[in-house]
Amino acid sequence: MNPISYSFVNKILFYLENKDLNILNSFIWGIYKNDDLIKSLHKSNKGINFINKMINYSNSEQKAYIKEKLNKIKK
Fold first, then answer.
1. Considering its fold, how many domains does the chain have in total?
2. Does the residue 33 lie in any domain?
3. Pairs from 41-48 (Cβ < 8 Å, separation ≥ 24)
4. Which contacts (CB < 8 Å, 24+ apart) does range 48-55 have?
5. How far apart are CA 71 and CA 5, in angstroms?
6. How far is the C-alpha of 47 from the C-alpha of 52, rounded, in Å?
7. Which of 3, 5, 50, 4 is nearest to 27 (CA)?
8. What is the DSSP code string of the chain?
9. Looking at the predicted structure, is the pLDDT value of residue 1 above 50?
10. How confident is the model over 10-64, as pLDDT tens digits?
11. What range defines the domain where residue 64 resides?
């Protein structure tokens, strides 16, 4: 079961292009804290592209956190 729809991912990608850094920072941090969401996103190519795009917009603390979380998922 994959609860992440393509329309959801497309909307998120649109908002990432918004570049309002305060909104993006809190939004990205909220996604990072949701283990099930990250695992679900990691199961599809579009989700992986979304995670990579989030990493590009993340601050250094968020980048370290998500990379650590992804390493745990891959194991």
1. 1
2. yes
3. 41/4, 41/9, 42/70, 42/73, 43/2, 44/2, 44/4, 46/6, 46/9, 47/4, 47/9
4. 50/9, 50/12, 50/13, 53/13, 53/16, 54/16, 54/28
5. 24
6. 9
7. 50
8. -----HHHHHHHHHHHHH--HHHHHHHHHHHHT-HHHHHHHTTSHHHHHHHHHHHHHS-HHHHHHHHHHHHHHH-
9. no
10. 777 777 676 666 776 777 778 778 888 888 888 888 888 888 888 887 778 888 8
11. 6-74
Q: Which residue has the higher pLDDT, 72 or 1?
A: 72
Q: Is residue 32 part of a domain?
A: yes
What does the block give as tokens for 62? Answer: 């968020």
Model pLDDT, residue 49? 84
Q: Give the per-residue pLDDT at 62.
A: 81
Residue 12 included in any domain: yes
Q: Is residue 69 assigned to a domain?
A: yes
